[in-house]
Structure formats: structure tokens, C-alpha cells
Write a structure and sequence with these properties.
single chain, 699 residues, alpha+beta, 7-stranded mixed β-sheet, 5-stranded mixed β-sheet, 24 strands, 26% helix, globular
């Protein structure tokens, strides 16, 4: 029998790696059907109002321009569930950057020239894009999914008032943008009433379903291909306007149409992390036992689609306390619609909570790790359900050992190298285990090879490779005998790549299909396979989405060492360490890559990333990678990621949890806590840019 014991957990290299580095992997914009036309969108230049006239005369006069679509001549769409997809359907302008026209031409350059020639007249209206936690227009949203709204446990205010130690602090996180390396792009083609789209998306099944509804087509007349995707981080989690515009233009012109959104337009049309103002109040006994946790969050949403940045959700599961209140409030403004960004809610929320825990530790004179350990719990505070597994304490202790935390001088501003102050910080992290129903098929061929088919999406996580490992393990064969077909809506339906749910959801379906196939093969008792081979299928609906008696979460601990230059205000991260408890790690190589990627993104959140809404023009000021600074190689030190082995039988057949997002969750807080330890100054607004650092240090 072949040795398959190393199929799961082994550091198998990405099987699509050679295709990517040689350029053979084709992304959405790299499909160019014969006769392909190119589109370029025209964004609104006012923050609120109505289009009163569109003069496309000059645009249509540009040689090679095929058509100019506006709300007056664009195809009519069925009303979408997502209002951001109702493009070119009416004259309204809900925010700056909203698409009001689309120019289609023979070449990309011509389309861009034509778009610049379109003249638009507006009836402008007063607008407001400024988030204020005190606004009377802010409201508590309905808690339809258990994460938004307000949750209470005991009398939090009374417990806070009578506590011997308290902190009452407010933290601010600015708007943040996903900025995947590959911009949003789609190539659409209609043929004999059938629509085929190559789209940069985190879920081709969802895009297929939405396009079918918008254009009133049966689902089997729409095919969406997302074979290779150059990052998404949530911005490609649901269909965005580009794919609708490409399909509309192709239908109108009778030609395939390619649309690649300019990076400078992404901030306004593909979502962003909503800014948050977070007031955190913690109360504890003298020994550090928490008695009250109050976390109040205000974020903005657009006027056309409600989105809640559920920053207090993680607080409901993190630490034991006698009483708690967590509240989300949203303020509708004339802003682009916010949406998912890596660890939505958890990333900004845990920054605030874990910073406040550090402040409480200082108030009490207790080591920050010890404070967290004293408030650890084996049941979820809000629901009282037991955790299926929770090894936060082990992560903290192992991280402390690896980081040599015991040698740390707890007194702030106690270590310096010339003008550079050195400090270290810690923060905990958590992320929920999310599993969604999916379908998969498995095929055995007479030559001994196998094919697994599922409409999963590989957004850079190594999904192809890990699913092949799951299949090989279930079949009891070497992994190199398994091929994985993914990224096409004609394959068995699968959930989208989001919420760190991909491998847990798809792997379950693949495991079940391959287990059934292995049983069928065993029943044949050595009889040869028919020339066409044999197949098995699986559908996890009703099981993957079943209610659990357990609270299921990943946990982790982040450690950071920083150097703060008191002359320039620069913060340099010297060391980052993450230790995680995330179920069974299915591929040690790709898992470490995911953890490190999340930590790098958290470093950017802490030090460099931030966006500004101009109150006069209603526009994001930092709209490209020249103004919005993501970490470069020089900003990222050697990063270590490790994990605790967890055996959790309450998850899925592989025993795995999601790992794509927990790496970002605690990183910003660990860095912020390290900056405080270095300087003795607590900065409560991200990012920690030199001007803010200098202002704090000098005062």
C-alpha cells in the first residue's frame, strides 16, 4: 500500500506555483476572445446629487469608440439584492465615484480617451462624509446574524461603577482599503443567449447566481470562471460593479468586452473597511479579575446599503466577566459602501480590546500576559456554550517562551539605543470557525489517477494543493495522483472564499466524496474499472451548516518588538511572533504563508495604512499605492509563525479551522502596545505615523 500518512500536514508546494511564476496562469483580464472590445468607466465627480445631462458627442467622435452607456440607454436590470450593483439604472449619485457612464471601444487606450471626453452635468446636493460617534442619526442595526446590534450580560454599568480598577478609553481606526495586487477585472461574452464571464472573484458560484438574477436568465445559462485570482481580502467576496458593467456592455455591443478597474477607482466601488470609533470600558478587581466589559462601536455605512463593521463581536467571546455590554451603531453618510476586509470586525475590534487590556494591566500593575491568563475561560461568555477547543493560554505561554518575555523590563521607556526607544508588546487574537455547505465530485480513472471537482476559489491560499491533500488522504493514495479542478461555476457548487471558511467547507465535501469513492473502489474487489471510470459525489448541506453545541473559534497570541526613533518619530518593527491554535494544520507550508501574510497586513494597519475622506469633496484622498502605503520588504522584519497542535473533533472530518484571517487580528494591538512600552505614551488612533508619534513623545 502507498504511504499516504504525510498527505495531510505535509509542506506540499503549491501545485500552481510554476504556472504563476512562468506566466502560464491566466487571470480574468488575460482572456481575450476574438473581437474583444474594452471598457472604461466614468465615475461621478460630486458627492451627492443627480445627473441632469450627459454629453457623449465628443466621446463618440473618437475613432474606435463603439458606444457610451449611461442610465438612459443601458440595458435594464432586475432589481438586485445588493444596491451597489444597480449601475447605470437611474440618474442618482449616492456618493463620489459612483459609476454614471461606460465607454466601450476597440482598444483600451481608445476607451480611456473616450471616457475623458464625456461631459456630465449634475444637480449637486449637500453631503456629509464625516463620522461622528455623537451623531443623533447613528442607530443600532437589527441583529439578524447574532454579530451586530447590542448584546448585554448582567448589569455592566453597575459592575463598572463599583470596581476597584477601571479604564475608559476610546480608539479610532480610519477607513482601510483591501488593494489586492490584481485589480477587479472581468471579461464577458454573450453567445446564443448564454453568458460566459471570466471574473476576478472570491466565489464564482455567487457571481453566477447574481448575474443570472440581474439578467433574468436560468443559472445554467451563465458560466463564471475564476481560475486564478490575484488576492481579494474580502473586496472580491461578492460581485462588484465591474462584472455587471462588462456583461451589460457585451450584451449591448454583441462583442466580448473586457473591463479592468483602474486602481484609483477601487476605493469608491469595491468596498473598504469602515472607520470605527470604539469606546472601551474595562473594570476589574485588584487581582485582575474582570467584572465588567463595555465595548461601544460607531462606524459609518452608505445610504444605499447597510454594512456593519462588527468590531465588538470578538469581545463577546474573548474573556470571562460578571457583566458585559457590546453595542454597534452605524451612521449613514454620503460615502461609498463599506464591505468586508480581512477579519471584518475582529481586526479593528481586537485592536481596541487588546489595547485596553494592556492599559488595564498597567493600571493594576499586572503583567499583560498574566492578566489575560487570569481571565481565560473554557466557555463562551455570552452564550455559555463550551468551546470546542480553546488553547489561548498555551499560545500565550509558548509565545512568551519563544519571545523571551520573562527578560522584559515591564517599566515603559526603560530601554534605549541612542535616540531609539525599544519596547515590546503582546495581544491575543480570535476568529470564528465558519463552515458553509458545498458540493464536490470525485472521479477514479482506469490508469490510477483521480480528479476532484468543486467550484472552490484559490485566491492565493493554496486551495488547489490542500484539497488534493484532503482527497489523497481520504482515498489512501499519493497526492501526486490527484488533480483538482476548481474555479468554474459549471463545477459542483461551493461556498465563496471568505471568512476563513474555504478549506473547512470545501475540504469537508471533498473528503466525503473521496471517502465514498474509496468505498466504491473497495467494493469492486479487484475488478477493473470501466473505461469511463467511476464517480462519487457529496453534498454537506444540513451538516456543515447545522447548529453546534459548541462555540468554535481559533485563538492566537501576537508578540512585537519595536524601535521608536524620538528624532524622526519613525516606528520600526524589529520582531513579530505569532503563535496560533487553529485546529489541525493541513499544510504546514501554505499555513505559515497565510499566518505571515495576515501579520504583515496587521503591521500595515498599525503603522502605514489609512485613508482620509475629504469633507469638502466627499472623496477618498489616498486612492492608489502611492498615497495608501502598504508594507514593503523594508518594512517587514523576519516574522515567525508557529502553532499549537489541536485535536478538535467538533469541526469537520479534517479537524481544521480557518487560518486566513487570524494572523491580522492581534498584530496591530501588539505593535501599539509595544510602542507604548517603548515610549510611555499611549496613542489611540491608527496608523502610528511619525507625526502622531512625535506629537505624543514630545508632549
Amino acid at each position: 500500500m502507498p504511504d499516504t500518512t504525510s498527505a495531510l500536514g505535509s509542506p506540499a508546494a503549491r501545485r500552481e506555483g510554476p504556472a504563476k511564476v512562468t506566466g502560464a496562469a491566466r487571470y480574468a483580464a488575460e482572456h481575450t476572445p476574438e473581437g474583444c472590445a474594452y471598457a472604461w468607466p466614468v465615475p461621478a465627480l460630486v458627492a451627492r446629487g443627480e445627473v441632469t445631462a450627459v454629453d457623449d458627442t465628443a466621446a463618440l467622435a473618437v475613432p474606435g469608440v463603439v458606444t457610451v452607456l449611461t442610465h438612459r440607454n443601458a440595458p435594464r436590470l432586475a432589481e438586485p439584492d445588493d444596491a451597489t450593483l444597480a449601475v447605470l439604472q437611474d440618474a442618482r449619485v449616492p456618493h463620489r465615484g459612483w459609476y454614471i457612464a461606460l465607454v466601450v471601444a476597440d482598444t483600451l487606450e481608445t476607451a480611456r480617451e473616450g471616457a475623458a471626453a464625456v461631459r456630465v452635468t449634475y444637480a449637486e446636493e449637500p453631503h456629509d462624509v464625516t463620522l461622528s460617534a455623537d451623531s443623533s442619526d447613528a442607530y443600532v442595526p437589527e441583529d439578524s446574524d447574532g454579530t451586530s446590534g447590542e448584546h448585554t450580560r448582567g448589569d455592566a454599568d453597575a459592575a463598572y461603577a463599583r470596581a476597584s480598577a477601571r479604564v475608559d478609553v476610546t480608539y479610532r481606526v480610519p477607513p482601510l482599503h483591501n488593494h489586492p495586487m490584481e485589480p477587479h477585472a472581468a471579461t464577458a461574452s454573450w453567445q446564443d443567449g448564454r453568458l460566459t464571464v471570466h471574473d476576478s472573484s472570491q466565489g464564482a458560484t455567487t457571481v453566477r447566481n447574481v448575474l443570472a438574477a440581474l439578467f433574468e436568465l436560468p443559472k445554467d445559462q451563465v458560466t463564471v470562471v475564476s481560475e486564478h485570482v490575484g488576492g481579494g481580502f474580502g473586496a472580491k467576496g461578492t460581485p462588484r460593479p465591474h462584472v455587471v458593467l462588462a456583461a451589460m456592455a457585451s450584451r449591448e455591443t454583441g462583442r466580448p468586452v473586457k473591463l479592468v478597474l483602474p486602481r484609483g477607482q477601487l476605493a469608491a466601488v469595491v468596498g473598504h473597511r469602515s472607520p470605527t470609533v470604539q469606546r472601551v470600558r474595562l473594570a476589574a478587581e485588584a487581582d485582575g479579575t474582570l467584572t465588567s466589559v463595555i465595548h461601544e462601536v460607531t462606524s459609518h455605512t452608505s445610504r444605499i446599503k447597510e454594512f456593519v463593521e462588527t468590531a465588538a463581536a470578538a469581545t463577546r467571546v474573548m474573556y470571562a466577566s460578571q457583566a458585559a455590554r457590546t453595542t454597534h451603531r452605524v451612521l449613514p453618510l454620503d460615502v461609498p459602501s463599506p464591505s468586508w476586509m480581512r477579519a471584518p470586525g475582529e481586526a479593528p475590534g481586537m485592536y481596541a480590546l487588546e489595547s485596553a487590556m494592556d492599559e488595564l494591566a498597567e493600571t493594576l500593575g499586572i503583567d499583560p500576559i498574566e492578566l489575560r491568563l487570569r481571565n481565560d475561560t473554557q466557555s463562551e461568555p455570552d452564550s455559555s456554550r463550551p468551546f470546542s477547543s480553546r488553547h489561548l493560554a498555551e499560545c500565550l505561554r509558548e509565545g512568551a517562551r519563544r519571545f523571551d518575555w520573562a527578560a522584559r523590563e515591564p517599566r515603559p521607556r526603560s530601554r534605549a539605543e541612542g535616540s531609539v526607544l525599544i519596547g515590546s508588546g503582546v495581544a491575543a487574537a480570535t476568529y470564528p470557525v465558519i463552515v458553509a455547505p458545498s458540493r464536490a465530485s470525485a472521479h477514479a480513472a482506469p490508469d490510477g489517477s483521480y480528479v476532484v471537482r468543486i467550484n472552490a476559489t484559490d485566491i492565493g491560499t493554496g486551495a488547489r494543493t490542500v484539497l488534493a491533500q484532503v482527497a489523497a488522504d481520504a482515498l489512501g493514495v499519493p497526492v501526486d495522483r490527484v488533480r483538482t479542478d476548481i474555479g468554474n461555476s459549471d463545477l459542483p457548487n461551493a461556498s465563496l472564499a471568505g471568512g476563513s471558511s474555504g478549506t473547512a467547507s470545501w475540504g469537508w465535501a471533498v473528503h466525503d466524496a473521496c471517502t465514498r469513492l474509496a468505498a466504491d473502489l473497495a467494493d469492486r474487489k479487484g475488478r477493473p474499472l470501466p473505461p469511463e471510470g467511476i464517480d462519487a459525489t457529496a453534498d454537506t448541506a444540513g451538516r456543515a451548516d447545522a447548529e453546534s453545541d459548541f462555540a468554535r473559534h481559533s485563538f492566537g497570541a501576537h508578540f512585537a518588538e519595536v524601535g521608536v526613533d524620538t528624532v524622526t518619530g519613525e516606528v520600526r518593527v524589529r520582531r513579530l511572533l505569532g503563535v496560533y491554535a487553529a485546529g489541525r494544520i493541513l499544510n504546514s507550508l501554505t499555513a505559515r504563508s497565510q499566518f505571515i501574510g495576515g501579520m504583515t497586513m496587521g503591521l500595515g494597519m498599525a503603522l502605514t495604512e489609512g485613508s482620509t475622506l475629504d469633507p469638502a469633496f466627499g472623496d477618498f484622498v489616498e486612492r492608489d499605492l502611492a498615497g495608501y502605503h502598504v508594507p514593503a520588504n523594508a518594512d517587514v522584519p523576519a516574522i515567525e509563525a508557529h502553532w499549537i497542535d489541536e485535536d478538535d473533533p467538533h469541526l469537520n472530518p479534517m479537524g481544521s479551522k480557518g487560518i486566513g484571517e487570524i494572523g491580522i487580528v492581534g498584530t496591530a494591538a501588539a505593535i501599539g502596545n509595544a510602542v507604548h512600552h517603548a515610549t510611555g505614551v499611549r496613542l489611540r488612533e491608527l496608523p502610528l505615523t511619525p507625526d502622531r508619534v512625535l506629537t505624543g513623545v514630545l508632549h
